[in-house]
Amino acid sequence: MTGTQRMAEIADFTGLGAESFVPLFENGEPRVNHLHLDAGERIEPHRHAARTVLFVVLDGEFELHVGSETYELPAGRVARFDGEREFSPVAVEASTALVILTSVSGGA
Q1: Rounded to whole angstroms, how far apart are CA atoms 31 and 23?
Q2: CA-CA distance, 81 to 13, in Å (whole number)?
Q3: Which strand ranges, in their side-by-side order, compose the sheet holding 87-91?
Q4: Residue 45, preceding bond cis, omega within 30 degrees?
Q5: With 71 labelled, which of 25, 43, 57, 64 sits at a CA distance of 20 to 30 A?
Q6: pTM exceeding the 0.70 threshold for the entire prediction
Q7: 85: closest CA among 99, 66, 100, 104?
């Protein structure tokens, strides 16, 4: 194994139903978080500066507010947006998502 290779990291989120927001890995990029909200619950509007956000709906349905726009996201949908934009997910019903935060790089 060379200095740039790392072992695979494995996370299990199958038993996290009651937890609202859980980071799945301790360190490193990208940051991966498990989000579970009951019907009507929301995460207050916030930003993740210098990040791209991937919001992956695993089950249920979210209403995702990004800036002045609102998106209906049922299970199986993915939203990608600039973390500089203020956003707030609201659970339409009991819902679960992965929120993946990647660093923004200057190169292509």
Answers
A1: 7
A2: 24
A3: 69-74, 61-66, 87-91
A4: no
A5: 25
A6: yes
A7: 66
